[in-house]
Amino acid sequence: MTKKSNITLMSTALIATGATALTTGVNSVHADTVKTTDTNPAQTQTVKSNDQKLDDDITNAKTDVDNAQAKADQTQADANQAKSQADASQTTANGAQSSADQAQSDLNAAKDNAQKAQDTADQATDAAINDAKNAINDQKTQNAQNEQGVEDAQSDVDHAQDNVDHAQADVNNAQKDANQTDSAANAAQKDVDHAQDVADGSASQAANDQLNDAQNDLSQAKDHANKAQDTANQADQHASAAQKDVDQAKNNVNDATKAQNVAQAKTDAAQNAQDAAQKALDDASQHQQNSNQVHLSQGYIDALNAYSQASPNDANYQQVVNALITATNNEWAQNGGYVSNANDQAIKINSKADLDKYMAELNTYAQQLVNNVRDQFGTSQVQVSNGSKQVGQQIGNALTDENWNSLNGHDMNVNRNVAQANGLSQLSDQDMNVVMDKVLSKSWNLSLDDFKKALYESMQNYLFNGVEWNHATSVAGTRLGAKGKDVWMGLGWSFFTPTAETNQGVPVKDGEVVITSLLNFMYDYTIQDSSKFDAKAIPDDSISLDTIQQLENDLSAKKATTNAANQNVAKAKAHTADAQKALSAAQVALTTAKSQQTKAHAAVDEANATVKAATVAVAAAQKAVDEANASDAVKQQALADAQAALKDAQAVQGQKHAILDAAKAKLADANQALGQAKARLASGSHFESWPTSFS
User: Fold this and answer.
1) E strand intervals along 331-374
2) Residues 103, 50: contact at Cβ < 8 Å?
3) How far apart are CA 300 and CA 298, in angstroms?
4) Lowest pLDDT segment from 117-121, 263-267, 607-611
């Protein structure tokens, strides 16, 4: 079976009417501490301890005496009880002894007095009781006097310490005055010695020599100062130049940084543009048309256009046909073999039910094949709507149901009946092509890729069969009366199962099925009942190969721009790094220059100080020379003046030393008085801590 014999065109009369081409667009807790200062703590503690013990013992003794008086006329048993109470008093005294070891002697005295109280109790009389009471009152008075004595002794110590402090201050001031007068006297003595040397004439040569030396020193000092100033001036210039270098280097860094930022901004923009272009390409690639499209040469396009406009009655008709045949011969080579798609190959189709699932995708692919050709011819694009898809599907199904052999041509009855059932007056064009003539076994073992390949090869047969051209003009939309019309297309598949023993002279095998593709075209003027025909075009969101190529070219250009921008950024960064390095070097040089400048000015200050000192030395030496060269009368008068000044200084010196000696003596007396006051306070010799008896 040849390609030429497998294609069939059914066409109907076309009426030329106006049309509009449709295009579809792409898409804290604190504690307070109180410090107590005791005046002679040990003595005060002793007095207080004695008072407490005394009060306790006196109270106990008084109790004993009162008990004894009350029971004086009673039996000896009453006296014995008084003694028992005295023993209790002894126990109390012993307890006091254990709590204060430092008052042992006082506690012992308390025990003795307690015993005496017991004895008194044993011999209790009114007179003895009165004596005991008087003794108690006397002791309390003495204790009060003792406490006052401690306070007076401490006051004496404080007063004595103040006297010592004042005396020491007087000694310090007197010593300072004495030291000053000593210095003044020593200076006056030197003046006298110098005046004596001048008067004797022994200082003349030395003064001249000293003047010469001082003048030489001054000259050298001035020369050194001038040189130091020159060095300082140079250091100032170097520091100034270094500062300018740093300022310029900073400007360079700022400029380089700005340039780098600009370059980086351009790079960022370029990268963003590249990313956008990449995304656009990626998005478009997801909706890319099948890469297997038919590409026509301009020669073929021109030849088919000429044929579409020619008539068999034209004198040059055969020449037009020959030119088309010649142009066609090159198109097979230009449109090589179909390139399979792995994703489509993975989709298996083993029955018509499987195929029906992909009719929408196959309709879109067939539409892309046709419209790609029509793009090249500049003719109206075909639309796919639910109505056109239904027409194509129903025609294929009807032919399959009657087991129509496509080699018999078009079934005009089926075409008319389906068209009219869908609100159309007739079917405009129908391009048929046997795509697979042997499908063995009940499992077809085909794929979606096989059916797309069948459509692609059908397009090649329609355009380049070399025998007849009505299929070509139908697909290209160049037929007379078809231009400018709105046109819809619906894809159909028919399945023919041979019933004879042979099919076109070839033995028929069990399970053989012949599959035919049908491109069904419906023009706008054939729509009779729009309620039965859904003409709303289904948008084709697929992206053409030309658009993909444009997006690829745009991405390539964006990548080149980004690469160039990245190179500029790299250069700008290198320039910034160089500028920063130069700035660092300039800052080091400036630091060194400023250090040298500081040293140079310090040297100038030191040299100027030397000049000043040398100038003073020259003046002093000149004065000495002038004194040495003065008249004897002047020299003698200077000697006399110096001696008088010495005498005055020595007199003042003597006065100040006398004052110093007196201050030292007063200080010694104050220290002695302080020592005595402290001793009295410590010993407590002027008061007693306990009475010797109660009698």
Assistant:
1) 348-349
2) yes
3) 5
4) 117-121
Q: How far apart are CA 151 and CA 407, in angstroms?
A: 150
pTM listed for this prediction? 0.47
At position 374, the amino acid (one-letter code) is R
- Helix (H) or strand (E) holding 335, with range, is none
Q: Please, are residues 492 and 401 in contact by the beta-carbon 8 Å criterion? A: no
How far is it, in rounded angstroms, from Cα 383 to Cα 374? 12
DSSP β-bridge partners for residue 496:
514
Give the bridge partners for 382, in sequence order. 487
In whole angstroms, how far apart are CA 224 and each of 43, 141, 185, 219, 620? Answer: 78, 92, 39, 9, 22
pLDDT digits (tens, 9 = 90+) for 200-241: 877 788 888 898 999 999 999 999 999 999 999 999 999 999
d(CA 406, CA 518): 10
**Both structure tokens of 278:** 């990449």
81-85 CB contacts, 8 Å cutoff, 24+ apart: 82/118, 82/121, 82/122, 82/124, 83/118, 83/121, 83/122, 85/60
| Region 7-12 average pLDDT | 51
Rounded distance between C-alpha atoms, residue 349 and residue 448, angstroms: 6
Which residues are CB-contacts of 147 (< 8 A; sequence separation ≥ 6)?
47
Q: Determine contact, residues 610/229, Cβ cutoff 8 Å.
A: no
Q: What is the token pair recorded at 373?
A: 């050709």
Pairwise CA distance, residues 204 & 190, whole Å: 17
- Determine the straight-line distance between the first and last CA of the chain, rounded to whole angstroms: 170
Q: Which helix (H) or strand (E) holds 634?
A: helix 632-683
Beta strands 446-447 and 487-496 are unpaired
Reported for 212-216, long-range contacts at CB under 8 A and 24+ positions apart, including other chains, are 213/621, 214/614, 214/617, 214/618, 214/620, 214/621, 215/618, 215/621
Beta strands at 382-383 and 487-496: parallel, antiparallel or unpaired: parallel
Residue type, 349: I
State pLDDT tens for residues 629-687.
888 899 888 889 999 999 899 999 899 999 999 999 999 999 999 998 999 888 875 55
Share of the chain above pLDDT 70, in %: 79
Beta strand extents in 553-605 (DSSP E only): none
136 in helix, strand or coil?
helix
Neighbours of 606 (CB within 10 A): 13
CA distance 53 to 38: 21
Instruction: Kindly tell me the burial class for residue 695, based on how many C-beta atoms sit within 10 Å of its own C-beta (0-12, 13-18, 19 or more).
Output: exposed
- Nearest-5° Cα angle at 261, 259 to 266: 95
What does the alpha-carbon distance between residue 559 and residue 262 come to, in Å, rounded to a whole number?
19
* Cβ atoms 64, 79 nearer than 8 A: no
Cα 398 to Cα 120, 256, 391: the distances in Å are 159, 79, 11
Q: Which residue has the higher pLDDT, 638 or 108?
A: 638
Closest CA to 344 of 287, 286, 290, 285: 290
CB atoms within 10 A of CB 339: 11
Cβ–Cβ contacts within 10 Å for residue 394, how many? Answer: 19
Q: Return the residue matching tokens 């991405």.
A: 555
